[in-house]
Amino acid sequence: MFFNPRNDHICTRMEHVIYVMYLSMTIGKALNLNQDLIQAISLGHDLGHAPFGHAGEDSLNKILKEQGTEFCFQHELHSLRTIDLLAEHKSEPGLNLSFEVRDGIASHCGESIFEHKLVPWRDKTEAELIPGAEKHMPPATLEGCVVRIVDRIAYVGRDIEDAYRAGLMSFSDIPAHLQAELGNSNSAIVNTLILDILSNSYDQDAIVLSDAKGEALRELIEENYARIYKADPIITYENMVDNVVRGLFKAFMAAEQGNFSCPPEGELALENFHHFLERHPEKEASPIRKVTDYIAGMTDHYAATTFNAIYQI
Predict the structure, then answer these.
(1) Phi, psi (5° rounding) for residue 293?
(2) 239 lies in which domain range?
(3) pLDDT at 8
(4) Of 180, 198, 230, at which residue does a domain stop?
(5) What are phi and psi of 178, to 5 degrees?
(6) Cα 63 versus chain centre, distance
(7) Residue 55 maps to a domain
(8) Of the candidates 30, 127, 142, 181, which lies 20 to 30 Å from 287 by C-alpha distance?
(9) HEC string for 69-92
């Protein structure tokens, strides 16, 4: 949630991914699921995230809509594009991963809906992985369902910890009935929800949260939206992110056409971009697609420093 933090105690994307993997594998081991599949899905599920998290994702998606492109930007679909095309293995594009891994990565995102029960879609086909697939479509495997529900569990309490460090919220601000149902610390919330999943999912062809715990999780996420994600400092940062992403998009679109100049400090950034274009596996792809791929592959720090370098006055 908190992008490009200077506080080393604020959760990073990498830390979140490792946490999702650890919690998912804990559940998978208890339910006798495929540990290797869970690990692969967990490690790959956020590979397609743009810089600055969901704020960067939203900015890129808005830009693409304004450009009238036939494709949108959703980080889960870009994760699939990354492992299928942009990542390299033995100098060849794509990692040649199994359908089950690819599906789990593409189907991990369920932030827009609240699910107490995930039943795997066993007969899902390749067609359901294409861009535009609905977020309500569940993964094809129990392992994918575990990662999808854990992704939400992993961030809800940790975001409150980070919000406390940022002066936005603390666990004492959680309504009393939610503290009683889930706990009053990140570790307590995670422990409560993991144990609930295990007790309700054992010997079931589904990953299940009880109605009480699922409803409490839904309410806690709504609390986070009200107190954290929609807080004025976060909105201000999101506006800054939008300026940075738009500035990068404008600069690299012009650079792709060979008509962008920048201060000497930004020349290395342009060289890196042109090197990326030379190695891009889709030579016939549109400039918009290539620029989107490049920006989406940046870290928070690299995006910010690149913006500063090419627009330095």
Answers:
(1) -60, -40
(2) 233-310
(3) 45
(4) 230
(5) -75, -35
(6) 19
(7) no
(8) 127
(9) CCCCCCHHHHHHHHHHHHCEECCE
Q: Are residues 41 and 178 located together in one domain of the fold? A: yes
Q: How many domains is the chain built from?
A: 2
Structure tokens at 67: 């450009």
Say which residue the tokens 């992993």 belong to. 154
Instruction: Tell me the CA end-to-end span of the chain in Å, nearest whole number.
Output: 30
Contact call for residues 228 and 234 (beta carbons, < 8 A): yes
What is the residue whose two structure tokens read 């529900």? 149
* Residues 45 and 34 sit within 8 Å (Cβ to Cβ): no
Q: pLDDT tens across 122-138, in order?
A: 999 888 776 545 556 88
Cβ 133 vs Cβ 90: under 8 Å: no
Q: Is the pLDDT of residue 218 over 90?
A: yes
Under 8 Å CB-to-CB from 252, ≥6 apart: which residues?
Answer: 260, 273, 291, 294, 295
For the domain that residue 19 is a member of, what is the CATH number? Answer: 1.10.3210.10
Task: At 118, give phi and psi (nearest 5°).
Answer: -120, 115
Q: Is the pLDDT of residue 248 over 70?
A: yes
Instruction: Write the burial class of residue 91 (CB in 10 Å: 0-12 exposed, 13-18 middle, 19+ buried).
Output: exposed
25 and 126 share one domain: yes
161 and 23 in a single domain? The answer is yes
Q: How far is CA 225 from CA 166, 220, 229, in A?
A: 15, 9, 5
Spatial separation of the C-alpha atoms in residues 7 and 44, rounded to whole Å: 25
Regarding whether 244 and 122 lie in a shared domain, the answer is no
Give the end of a domain, one of 207, 230, 253: 230
For all residues of the chain together, what is the average pLDDT?
89
- Residue 61: partners with Cβ closer than 8 Å, 6 or more residues away: 72, 73, 74
